[in-house]
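Researcher: I'd like a candidate sequence for this fold, 381 residues long. If you have to choose between options at a position, lean toward the conservative one.
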């Protein structure tokens, strides 16, 4: 892919690691690519991160035809930069596109674009242990119409944000409210796609749980509110009676890359592992019997996040994690691999080669428009 590059003339400086937070600061550049029925995917380019000029009728704003990804790049002490499970994220990106009726693309093309972008912004990958460059690929509709249908034109873009720890509390155990009123996703819905709509469905429940003093909600199945699905925006794992258990992907649960990583490690370590439905009744019973040993969430942003309490029907199920927990071992191993301290025997890391693209500086100069106009190609056609 020939990626035209327009470098910023006003580079910003990255805040200190302690002031990064999550998703508040953005690297200098972004990747963009357009899609039209006539030309397919075209005009891949890297340009300064700046606002879009959006028509108020933009279809995404009204009907939510949008998907995204979230993945991370890490710097090693020697300055080399690695992206964790890049192709797995790109495979999921294209599956989300398919579910939302959006045009497909080659996962390896977008992976290549992300490598080129991270290479250009490699000074934005923070160096301290615990920090990372969070990469946010996004695909939105670019038609300006109010008729309800999938768009003809699309914009794919990738922005990058240097991040510190996801939770201000660090990895302290979270208090979780078991949600019995609202649901996140239902069978046949969008639960398995990484799309804005799922987040929209979850916001009010999360706010109400916070008002009650909790950190997040535990999502149950939409039909009976009996089966455990996800925790906040993370996949969920239990350790009951020394067995690691996670609910199966039935269409309502997102196929998390961190979830897959935990499962891959569980298999490598020959842990007792089960992928099967988990009911709240079983969790309550295990808690009363003293066999509910661990509960944790998995996701790119927080990696592995321990649950210290599940509040269900007014009862606090407290999880007192033992030393040498599976959760701790998972966290240490996954972050160890990410920072290059533990051998990457699964080939999960992609090294970002300096000047990874052959197209940088090859004369494909990209003259930027005044603003990044979404749907610009449509008006031109
Ligand atoms: C992104 C996401 C996850 C975690 O997926 P990872 O690939 O591990 O980051 C879990 N649940 C939902 C709803 C998500 O959107």
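Model: Candidate sequence:
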């Amino acid at each position: 892919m020939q990626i035209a590059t327009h470098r910023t003339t006003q580079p910003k400086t990255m805040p200190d690691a302690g002031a990064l937070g999550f998703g508040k600061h953005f690297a200098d550049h972004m990747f963009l690519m357009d899609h039209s029925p006539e030309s397919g995917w075209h005009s891949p380019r890297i340009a300064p991160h700046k606002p879009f000029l959006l028509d108020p009728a933009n279809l995404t704003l009204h009907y939510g035809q949008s998907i995204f990804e979230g993945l991370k790049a890490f710097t090693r002490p020697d300055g080399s930069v690695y992206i964790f499970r890049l192709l797995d994220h790109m495979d999921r990106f294209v599956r989300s596109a398919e579910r939302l009726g959006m045009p497909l693309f080659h996962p390896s093309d977008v992976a290549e674009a992300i490598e080129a972008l991270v290479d250009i912004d490699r000074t934005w990958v923070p160096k301290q242990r615990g920090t990372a460059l969070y990469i946010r690929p996004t695909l939105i509709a670019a038609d300006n119409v109010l008729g309800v249908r999938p768009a003809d034109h699309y914009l794919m873009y990738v922005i990058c944000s240097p991040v510190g720890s996801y939770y201000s509390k660090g990895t302290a155990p979270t208090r979780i409210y078991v949600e019995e009123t609202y649901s996140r996703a239902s069978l046949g819905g969008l639960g398995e796609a990484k799309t804005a709509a799922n987040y929209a469905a979850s916001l009010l429940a999360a706010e109400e749980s916070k008002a009650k003093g909790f950190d997040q909600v535990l999502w149950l199945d939409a039909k009976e509110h009996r089966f455990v699905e996800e925790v906040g925006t993370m996949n969920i794992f239990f350790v009951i009676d020394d067995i690691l258990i996670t609910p199966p992907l039935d269409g309502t649960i997102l196929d998390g890359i961190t979830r897959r990583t935990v499962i891959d490690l569980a298999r490598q370590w020959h842990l007792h592992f089960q992928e099967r439905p988990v009911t709240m009744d079983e969790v309550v019973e295990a808690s009363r019997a003293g066999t509910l040993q661990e509960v944790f969430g998995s996701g790119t942003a927080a990696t592995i996040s321990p649950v210290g309490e599940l509040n269900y029907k007014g009862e606090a199920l407290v999880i007192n994690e033992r030393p040498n927990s599976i959760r701790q071992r998972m966290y240490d191993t996954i972050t160890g691999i990410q920072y290059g301290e533990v051998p990457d025997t699964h080939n999960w890391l992609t090294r970002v080669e300096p000047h990874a693209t052959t197209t940088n500086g090859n004369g494909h100069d990209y003259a930027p428009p005044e603003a990044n106009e979404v749907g610009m190609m449509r008006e031109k056609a």
